[in-house]
Amino acid sequence: MSEIKFISGADSFKVLNPLNPIYKQRYEGIVAFSDTLRAEMLRAGYAKGVFPWSVSAPYLWFFTDPRLVLDPSQLIISHSLRKRIRDALQNVYRRDGIKHKLEIFLDHAPEDVLSGCAAARPGQDGTWISRPLRRAYLESMKDGFFHTIECRVDGKLAAGLIFDSIGRMLYGESMFTTLPDLSKLALSTLCSIARSESVHMIDCQEATEHLISLGGTELSGSDFYQSLQKETARDPIDWRLYCGRSLNDCLGILLSDK
Predict the structure, then answer these.
(1) 78, 60 in Cβ contact below 8 A?
(2) Distance CA 219, CA 142 (A)
C-alpha cells in the first residue's frame, strides 16, 4: 500500500491527488490514512473531497467515485413532505391528529445532534462517528466548518442533521430522527438556506436509495472534483445570520416555485 499517503497534518493534503486512478482500482477509494483526527485535518481533507471513514486508528480517508451530490434547487418534495413544510412554516408538527410546536435551529445543540447521529441504528452495532471524530467536529466549529440543524418538538430534540461548509460548498454527513419525516425537514431546511445562499451542490458522499429519492444524483469523481474546487473558492456563508433564531421561515423558498 505504498501509494496510500500517511497524513501527519493539514499540509499533507496539499500534495494529495485523489483522482489518481490507482486508489479506485486497487484500494476501493482509500487515498490516505492517519493516526489521529484534528479539526484542521478535516477542513484540509474535505477541501480535497476526502473524508475519514473509520471508527479507530489508523483512520482511513476516502474519495468515493462516483460521488452522490444533491443540487438544493432539485430537492424532490413529495406531497407528504410538502404538507410537513407548510405545517413547519406555522411552527406546527402534526402526529396522530395532534398539533405540536416545532422549532428548527442551527448550531443550537451540536453535541446532542452528534450523539443522535452516532447512536446505533436497528441491526447495527454503531456508526462511523467515533469519539475522536466527534471531538474534531466540535473543535472545527470555531472556524465555521462544522454545523448542525436541530428539529425540536415541544422543546425536545427530535431530529437533527450534521454538515460541513467550505466557501459555498456543503457536505452532508448524517441525519437522525425519532419522529416521522423530521430528518427530511432538517434536510429541507439545509436546502432552503443553500438556495438562499446560491449553493449549487451538497456532497452526499455515497449513493443511498433514500438520498436518490430526494433528488441526489451521481457525478464522476473528476466532475465532482472540478466543481468542488470552484465552490470551495467562493466567499463563505455567514452562518451567524442563521444562529439564535428559528429557521422555520427559511422553508418558504421551497414552496415558492411549486
Answers:
(1) no
(2) 31
Q: Are 106 and 243 in contact (CB under 8 A)?
A: yes
Whole-structure pTM over 0.90, yes or no? yes
Amino acid at 202: I
Within-domain flag for 57:
yes
Angle formed by the axes of helices 182-196 and 79-88, nearest 10°: 70
The C-alpha atoms of residue 130 and residue 126 are separated, in whole angstroms, by: 9
Of 63, 82, 104, the residue at which a domain comes to its end is: 63
Q: Note the pLDDT of residue 31.
A: 96
Give the strand order in the sheet containing 217-219. 92-95, 98-106, 146-153, 156-166, 169-177, 202-205, 67-70, 217-219
Separation of alpha carbons 222 and 227, rounded Å: 9
Report mean pLDDT in 10-residue bins for the chain, 258 residues.
Answer: 86 95 93 96 98 92 97 97 98 97 98 92 71 96 97 98 98 96 98 98 94 96 98 98 97 86
**How, if at all, do strands 30-34 and 5-6 pair?**
parallel
pLDDT at 123: 60
Confidence (pLDDT) at 191: 98
Contacts of residue 159, Cβ cutoff 8 Å, sequence gap at least 6: 116, 150, 151, 175, 176, 177, 178, 179, 182, 183, 185, 186
Domain holding 168: CATH number?
Answer: 3.40.630.70
Half-sphere exposure of 22 (CA within 13 A, CB side): 10
